[in-house]
Each structure stands twice: as structure tokens, then as C-alpha cells.
Automatic annotation (TrEMBL):
Pfam families: ROK. The keyword Metal-binding applies. InterPro entries: ATPase_NBD, Carb_Metab_Reg_Kinase/Isom, ROK. This is fructokinase. Belongs to the ROK (NagC/XylR) family. It comes from Lapidilactobacillus gannanensis. SUPFAM superfamilies: Actin-like ATPase domain. Its EC number is 2.7.1.4. The keyword Zinc applies. It catalyses: D-fructose + ATP = D-fructose 6-phosphate + ADP + H(+). Gene3D superfamilies: 3.30.420.40. Its cofactor is Mg(2+).
Amino acid sequence: MAHLLGGIEAGGTKFVCAVGDEDGNVQARIKFPTTTPEETIAQVFAFFDQYQIEALGIGSFGPIDINPDSATYGYITDTPKLAWKNYNFLGALRDHYQIPFVWTTDVNVAAYGEYKKGAGIGKKNILYVTVGTGVGVGYISHGELYSGRSHPEGGHILMHRVEGDDFAGVCPYHGDCLEGIAAGPAVEKRTGKKGYELTPTDDCWQKEAYYLAQACMTYTLTFSPDIIIFGGGVMKQSQLFPMIRTEFLKLMNDYVRVPDLDQYIVHVALGDDAGITGSLLAAATVLA
Ligand code: ADP
Ligand code: ZN
């Protein structure tokens, strides 16, 4: 019999909650803006209280504490969204529902969705990168979501700058890290326009491709993935893909062998549904 599972994609801007089955098929969903924890969590309960879910997969914005041995496991830790700082997100849900949970990052559930049902089907090692309001990285190694002491934060790697590019970047922590010069807000600060308002031939996309290619090089050399999958709003600029592949080829300079680049650096297959699909699929892994 099919199980009924819950999934939450908790973003800094909006929450998506869904119920569905262990194959990640969504049966009902709701979307609402992220406001205060109290108000937002009440909306989460109002949705799931209508169903008898057997497990819940949560992919949260962060940074979050994913170390089960830590006193603050399940908390959102250092977010710039101050109302959520040190909020015991998992604890609130556990108090309300006595079911198994998966607690991980929003990026990780999207990576897991692409691994099981999207562009990563059949691959063991998947590097997933989202380029949206921030840059987030999730890595699946031999079918398991990778974490060390904490989850990867590969969006904040430092960049070698394009000659003549003196844009200071917008990351409040590092200035011109990858997120600081390539996420949506950086594109906007650099050009004065939102990414989707720019033409596909705008100069800024060449820089964007170069920085994303550098990131692909770093991830390739560090993790040796089978595939690099890009999602997020900025990657809707499909002209970026051939440009990234060309820059990546130049940067790598034949140092290590990589698969055919058209199959190696690719766009998400599940589109905006990667995260919510992945949260349901993750919930399926903890079914009793
Ligand atoms: P989030 O990261 O908040 O989950 P998105 O992945 O949709 O959400 O990313 C939002 C960012 O992506 C914004 O900075 C927005 O301007 C930018 N963006 C959205 N759509 C596009 C597009 N088609 N082209 C370029 N940038 C876009
Ligand atoms: Zn940074």
C-alpha cells in the first residue's frame, strides 16, 4: 500500500509543504511566505494536520545544525533572518507529530530529488548547486547525502576574478565569494536589473559563466562527482550552460578526465519541484 508522507521545503522567502507518496509524487501542496517562526509554523501545522502522514522530510534554509550529538540539533543557527536565529525548527515539529523525520538543508533535499528522480538518475555521486538568492551546494556520495561536522557551504568559496572585474560583491561575510558575486542579488547589484530583466547577451552572463565554471572546477577537483547539476532562479538563463562548459574546459586544461560536458554540467530535470520532491523521497527513507 502506498504510504502518505510529508515534505517541507523551507526557504528564506517561502515555504512549500506537500503530502505525497514514497516515489515523490505530490498529492497536495501549499505555499506561503516565510514570516516569523510562530506564524509560519502555525501554517505548517494547519496544512499537515489535515492528513495522517507517516514520516516528514524537512529541507531548511540555514545554516542549520544537523549534528545529532549537538545540543542544538534541529535548530536554525546563524541566519541573517533574525527571527529564525537559534530557532528549534525540528523540535517544534517533533513536539507536534510523533513520526520519523529527516532533517537536512533545502539544498540537500533538492539534490536528493535530482538524484532519485531527476538529472542524477543512475549516478552515484552528485554535486548539486543552486544559484538563486544565495548559492548552495549539496553533495551525494555513493547514494548518501554527504555531511562532515556540518553540511557543505560550497557557495562561499573564494573566486579568482575576471581581469578588470572590481565588483566588491554582496556577501555580508566574505564580499566577493561565489555567492557574493554570482547569486541573484549580486547580478542585480552589478547590473542594476534583476537577472530575468537582462537580455541573454548581457555582458554580465560571461562573467557569471566564468565564475560558475571556476566553481565547477573546484567541485570537480575536490569531490570528483559523476555529474554537476545546477538549479535555482539564475540558472533559468539557459545560455549560461554552453558558456560554463567552454570556460570549464579551458580552466581544467585536461588535468583530469571528466565525462562529456553536455552530460556533466547540466540543468535540473525537476525544475522548481526538485526540493519538494526530494523532501518526500527523503521522508520515505525513514519509514518504519
Ligand atoms: P530562492 O533562492 O530564494 O529559493 P530562486 O532560486 O528563485 O529562489 O532565486 C531567486 C533569485 O534568482 C533572485 O535573485 C532572482 O532575481 C533570480 N532569478 C529568478 N528568475 C531568474 C531568471 N529567469 N533569470 C535570472 N535570474 C533569475
Ligand atoms: Zn560568502
